[in-house]
Design a protein that fits this description.
The protein has 271 residues and is of the alpha/beta class. The chain is built from nine helices and nine strands. The strands form three sheets. A four-stranded mixed sheet has the order 1-3-4-2. The protein has a three-stranded mixed sheet with strand order 5-7-6, covered by helices on one side. The protein has a two-stranded antiparallel sheet with strand order 8-9. The longest helix is centred in the last third of the chain and has 16 residues.
Length: 271
């Protein structure tokens, strides 16, 4: 029997519990408490100890940890035939033992479908949110990552023209144009995103259709342009993508409320 899970860069962003929500990353009474990693433990020994805290009556597996040259902080874990295999981004190879302990708790929680410890999630997120780690991850994405996008000149909208019109109207034409492109997949959940590592704004090609009005394409592009002006703020284990300043600026979009309503109706039609 083989079981495996992955903790990728996107799910890393969702590790912090959200009070009052149904977020699965919450404290649970039966969750084993996170211990203090011993300085002389190897990474393999940390994973074995955390495994035993989850499965005290099970036969202990052999543990193998490999550090791989990923383009981000991805990690993967698999249990097969009595062997626990862990693949971790090499950007974490020099991380202190408590960080590896937190990651082990997160990965094994996912593997055994348990609720992730909030303290483990906070410890891991706090480490990744350090200024030096954010810089390392950004450089990794630039050096190793690839940004796959479609041509900005779509079947119905030219993203260069959309950007320049909004730039002139809302930013006095002073915003340097990043790379632009339509997404490869027609996503309904991610209508647009700005990737600072590759300085690229990507809009879902779901919007490059006859059913999408110029208003909603402009609105989504404007939203992503604001990410250039108001970058994500990091504070300890917290990450704020849409700051108060961001939201105030977004509300200045002409026909802001109508654009949101029209976008909602468009997505309902595309469901």
């Amino acid at each position: 029997m083989s079981n495996g899970v992955a903790l990728d860069a996107q799910s890393n962003e969702d590790l912090m519990p959200n009070p009052g929500s149904s977020d699965r990353f919450t404290l649970e009474a039966e969750q084993a408490p996170l211990q203090c990693a011993l300085f002389f433990e190897s990474v393999e020994e940390i994973y074995l100890r955390i495994f035993r805290s989850f499965k005290p009556r099970s036969l202990s597996p052999s543990v193998t940890v490999h550090f791989r040259k990923y383009a981000n902080a991805n990690s993967r874990i698999r249990l097969e035939g009595g062997c626990l295999t862990v693949l971790i981004s090499d950007v974490l190879e020099e991380a202190p033992a408590p960080v590896h302990e937190a990651l082990a708790s997160i990965l094994l929680s996912k593997l055994f479908r348990r609720t992730t410890s909030a303290s483990a999630a906070a410890r891991y997120r706090r480490y990744l949110n350090r200024a030096d780690m954010r810089r390392k991850l950004e450089l990794l994405k630039q050096e190793r990552g690839r940004k796959l996008v479609l041509d900005p000149v779509g079947a119905h909208f030219n993203l260069h023209e959309v950007f320049e019109a909004l730039n002139l109207k809302y930013f006095f034409g002073l915003m340097a144009r990043p790379n632009l492109g339509w997404s490869v997949r027609r996503s309904r959940t991610t209508l647009g995103h700005y990737d600072p590592s590759h300085n690229t704004i990507v809009l879902s090609n779901l919007l490059d259709s006859r059913g999408a009005s110029e208003l909603i394409v402009n609105y989504v592009m404007f939203h992503e342009m604001l990410h250039l002006k108001y970058p994500t703020e990091h504070k300890a284990a917290r990450r704020c993508v849409h700051t108060r300043e961001f939201k105030r600026a977004e509300a200045k979009f002409e026909d802001f409320h109508r654009a949101k309503l029209e976008l909602s109706r468009f997505l309902d039609r595309e469901a």
